[in-house]
Amino acid sequence: MAKLLPAILALVGIGAGVGAGLHLKSDTVEEMEHTTECIPPNTPTYTLTEPKKHADGPSEFVTMSNQFVVPVFTGDGVDAMVMLSLNLEVGQGHKEELFKREPKIRDAFLRALFEHSNAGGFDGNFIEMIELDSLRSALREAAAKTAGPMVRDVLIADLVKQKV
């Protein structure tokens, strides 16, 4: 009897599911007309632009000395940590000047990264092109305010998100 009980319960469950499906099935499925058209998915479009031409000549790349670590908060506290390595594109001959200003630049970058994190920029699929473009532009803006025109671009070398 103990071996029959699970089989009987499974049959009763299947029967109840079939009965509920038949009872809740709409009889007017064939009579329904499509009143709305399918909406195409909201896919962003990108246009390719010419790269910026710099009048200052050739560029050099400077790697920031340490990684940036940014917490990702949820309602319960810290959900994940994001680690970034950044490189800066500067005009030739500006490396030493940039290294002198690195503490201020790091501070500006951390502010921009925390704002991006608090706005939900690292939630979900944060490596989509739009999310990365908004992050790059925020970092570029922070670099321009802090270091001026010597920083031409900010490059994201590494980007890792680790759940806590």
Molecular structure report:
It is elongated and about 85 Å long. Strands 1, 2, 3 and 4 form a four-stranded antiparallel sheet that branches. By secondary structure, the chain is an alpha+beta fold. The protein starts with a helix and ends with a strand. Helix 3 runs antiparallel to helix 4. 38% of the residues lie in helices and 24% in strands. It is a single-pass membrane protein. Belongs to the FliL family. Controls the rotational direction of flagella during chemotaxis.
Describe what is shown at a glance.
By secondary structure, this protein is of the alpha+beta class.
SSE layout:
Blueprint lengths: L3 H21 L34 E5 L4 E7 L2 E15 L3 H6 L1 H17 L10 H19 L3 E13 L1
Antiparallel strand pairs: 1-3, 2-3, 3-4
Cα gyration radius (Å): 28 Å
* Average pLDDT rating: 82
Poorly predicted ranges: none
Total DSSP helices: 4
What is the CATH topology descriptor of the domain at 59-163? Answer: Tetrahydropterin Synthase, Chain A
Please describe the biggest sheet, giving its number of strands, its sense, and whether it closes into a barrel.
Answer: 4 strands, antiparallel
- End-to-end Cα distance: 49 Å
Q: Under the CATH scheme, which class of the domain at 59-163?
A: Alpha Beta
Helical residue percent band: 25-40%
- The CATH architecture of the domain at 59-163 can be named as 2-Layer Sandwich
Structural class: alpha+beta
Tell me what portion of residues adopts beta-strand conformation.
15-25%
DSSP strand tally: 4
Order of helices and strands: HEEEHHHE
Write down the overall geometry: elongated
Subcellular location: Cell inner membrane; Cell membrane
Membrane topology: Single-pass membrane protein
GO biological process, one term: chemotaxis
Function: Controls the rotational direction of flagella during chemotaxis.
